[in-house]
Amino acid sequence: QVQLVESGGDLVQAGGSLRLSCAASGSIFSPRAMGWYRQAPGKQRELVAHVTSGGGINYADSVKGRFTISRDNAKNTVYLQMNSLKPDDTAVYYCNAQYGSSGPLTTYWGQGTQVTVSS
Fold this sequence. Notes:
The chain has strands at residues 3-7, 11-13, 18-25, 33-39, 46-52, 57-59, 67-72, 77-82, 91-99, 106-109, 113-118. It is mostly beta strands and 119 residues long. It is elongated. The model has no long low-confidence stretch (mean pLDDT 95).
């Protein structure tokens, strides 16, 4: 069973930085893609950033230029460097991993890590 273990969430002042990490384990295969989503109170879960095993990356418009996603394929770990944080970035951040070589992908989620940005 695949497990995703997240870390790095914290309380930070506006303008500060945080780095989230997510390590995937439990499969002999590497994830085809990994990413970060977030969910603020009363809002739907939304994509923050996503990276494929081949290095393709996409970001939500709201975080472009401030957040950087990276991936260590050897460790099956994905990182999210968050700079210039804003109160609107406050949310539970969830790690996501997709497995599969062809056809439908299997998606797994982490338990979430809280990021709180104070003004």
